[in-house]
Amino acid sequence: MTGHRVIVVGAGPAGVRAAQALVEAGLRPIVIDEGRRAGGQIYRRQPDNFTRSHEALYGTEAARARAIHETFDGLAAQIDYRPETLVWHIADGHVWTLDGEGQHRSEPYDALILCTGATDRVMPVKGWNRAGTYSLGAAQIALKAQACAIGSEVVFLGSGPLLYLVASQYAKAGANVVAVLDTAPFAARIPALPRLLSQPGVLWNGVILTRALKRAGVAVHHGVTPVAITGDAQDGVDGIVVRMADGSQRRFACNAVGMGHHLRPETQLADLARCEFAFDPAVRQWLPLRDGEGRSSMPGVYLGGDGARILGARSAEASGRLAALTALADLGHSVSGGEQSGLRKAIAGYARFAAGLAQAFPWPVEQAAALPDDAVVCRCESVTAGELRAVVNEGGAREANRAKALSRVGMGRCQGRYCGLAAAEVIAAEARVPIETVGRLRGAAPVKPLVAGTAGIPCAPQETGA
Amino acid sequence: MSAARSDVLIIGGGIMGCASALFLHQRGQSVTLLETDLVGRQASGTNFGNVRRQGRPLYQLPLANRSIAIWRQARELLGTDIEYLQRGHMRVAYRDRPDAAERMEAYAADAAHYDLDLEMLSGNVLRDRFPWMGPDVLAASLSAQCGHANPRLTGPAFARAAVKLGAVIHENCKATTALRDGNEFHVVAADGREFRAPVLLVTAGAWAKAFVEGFGETVPLTSRGPNMCVTEPLPYAIGPSVGVSTPETFESVYFRQVGRGNLVIGGSTQNQTYPEDYRVYVKPENCIGQWQQIQRLIPAVRNLAIIRTWSGIESYLPDDQPVMGPSAGVDGLFYAFGFCGAGFQLGPGVGETMAELIATGSTDIDLSPYRIDRFAAASE
Fold this sequence. Notes:
The structure holds two protein chains of two kinds. Chain A is an alpha/beta fold. Chain A has helices spanning 13-24, 54-58, 62-75, 136-146, 161-172, 189-196, 200-215, 268-272, 313-330, 337-360, 365-370, 385-393, 400-407, 420-431, 435-438; strands at 6-9, 30-32, 80-82, 85-91, 94-99, 104-108, 111-114, 118-120, 133-135, 153-159, 176-182, 219-221, 225-232, 236-243, 249-253, 256-261, 263-265, 277-280, 285-288, 301-303, 376-378, 383-384, 450-451. In chain A, strand 13 (225-232) and strand 14 (236-243) form a beta hairpin. Chain B has eleven helices and 25 strands. Chain B has helices spanning 15-26, 43-46, 61-72, 74-78, 98-111, 123-129, 151-165, 209-214, 284-297, 343-360, 376-379; strands at 4-5, 8-11, 31-34, 50-51, 89-94, 119-122, 137-143, 147-148, 168-170, 175-181, 184-189, 194-197, 199-202, 222-226, 228-231, 241-244, 253-257, 263-267, 270-271, 273-274, 279-280, 305-310, 314-316, 323-326, 333-337. Chain B is globular. Strand 23 of chain A pairs antiparallel with strand 22 of chain B, so a sheet runs across the interface. Chain B: GO terms for molecular function: oxidoreductase activity. Chain B: Keywords: Oxidoreductase.
């Protein structure tokens, strides 16, 4: 029974809890991690010679971060951990990896648990292609992993809890946070309150963050509409112009902007594993189908954490463990039904809270429709909103992949991971069609740029006729 | 529901069907084209983008020449840029296959009689002109008057130009049955729509077989998916589209640099297709094998990152030649499919030739090598 090969992709809270459950069942899972050390993005660890405490790095989440790190370190002898390794393709029951040494490997699995995490969901702003504009997640990682700030005078723009968290972390670290510009109107939080109260502890953490920002003298503005990030090609960002809630226009001088609207799941591996996706109207995104137990639509493929649906780090611990227990049960191991139902209940609570967040800090759809024609949507390929609209109007593109074929949107290094959702909104607005009919950019290997000249596994070329 | 009528009905919206629709309208024929998915999505849209004449059988060169004349004026014809770059096409032979170089020499002598000027290069001359060439390369045959274009744009551009002239194109319209009913053809789509025309042209690529067999003819059509990838962009430097001439499939890689700067890489092994689902899944082992091979041709690739891979559904016939021309048994029925991974360059010329054949009853292009009934004997 212990001979089953189970692979966990990702070593954030979901992947660590999944690995732990597998080890408890007597398995020796392979854990593949893009990071150099386990912890994921949210509990990302510093390089070896950095010495800040968990409290300094993770604030209110220090105890959880420590628990994840210590759990994983305790598992070291019982798992096959592959750090700094990218899963670039999944095919025919194998994951294909490339490690930091440039070595390709192909690993078969009986069960595959994808805990791939999330990246920022970004709504473009005219000028966001200027040097000095970062996503909120990137701004946070610069601080957490490298102890450096994205600029000396920073404006944070966007919406959602990460906006406030990163701004307060920057303020605490001594950076000059010029302003926090929230695109959500403050009033949106009122109807969301009943759902947000389902996690009073998390809600309270949010209140503390806001207070800390005020104490640090950071101005927080709500209901802001971005107009442009200004600057030039030589020196990058020199400020940001926004329309305030009262309709007045205002400019904030700065040399860096951190921006983002919540997160989006990293779903490309689920896509390459041929999992089915469905449109979720609450977040206006296509997400891989996941049953209540963590199963995807593909037999043997399980989904945990934010990689399937953004419910936060706490939920990720529960859904990662649940996915592993389900995989174990499907492989014939006995698992505790009581524990599974407890995890499901916990995840339902986190889902309610996440729905409240989506309500309180909405994705500013109208901003996509209002983007000026010369604003860049796809930064990798420098595709502007106007070029995208042209392929809708002149090329007849009303679907995401057709628009990609005709305009190059999403065709660059990030493969649409950062521009895809915004591009879909621009297309939907211009074509006057519901966003779900625009579809989603199909995932294609490699999920991240892969240097061609890497050492290959001995690999017989395959030719397959029909 | 009354059936929509036109002079010609076309099943299949790849480059063959869309170009035929355009040229038929230029000749005054009304056309309705049915496409299961979106125009130009499969073989037409996912291929490498070679506008290559050399390496074709000599009897195919008149068609290829007709086609390149259209490529050269594509921007004016289509009213849009399909990124045709006439920067040459080059075939190379490796040192360990000197016979391949000899065959290229012989081909160059023969091709000269068909208006295809090829320049043979080797040694310092070759390396001075193309310094990025790998040390394994022995010799090259350069066709300066060929080039490459963007397949993603080409099929849709022909479709839009045809529509501008009055063609009716139905996308997401899957033809399920096609019958001869008296003096005309009757085609029914999956959603119940009906279409009638006195002439039917099947340009359905890998999906053509069912229609052919429905009319009582035989075709041993199979499908395969090319293995394609593209690197991150780098400053434009390469010029020609370059491929390896070799009898070994796994060695037969090729690449080109697009105006944006990326290198598009194809060749070597191919992928299994799922035509019913309209899908191909790129096989990782094929990608790795292809990357290893391409480094032999252009070693600098090893420092570049591959950013995307893709495939599509191409149709193949046992003799590597298409089916093109009239049906052997049914009046008014025409075929142009099965281009065996080499149809992109031919597409515009095929469209013009089929339009000429349908509108006037004949064409100067010799279509005898492409007759549908060449497979009839084998199956009997």
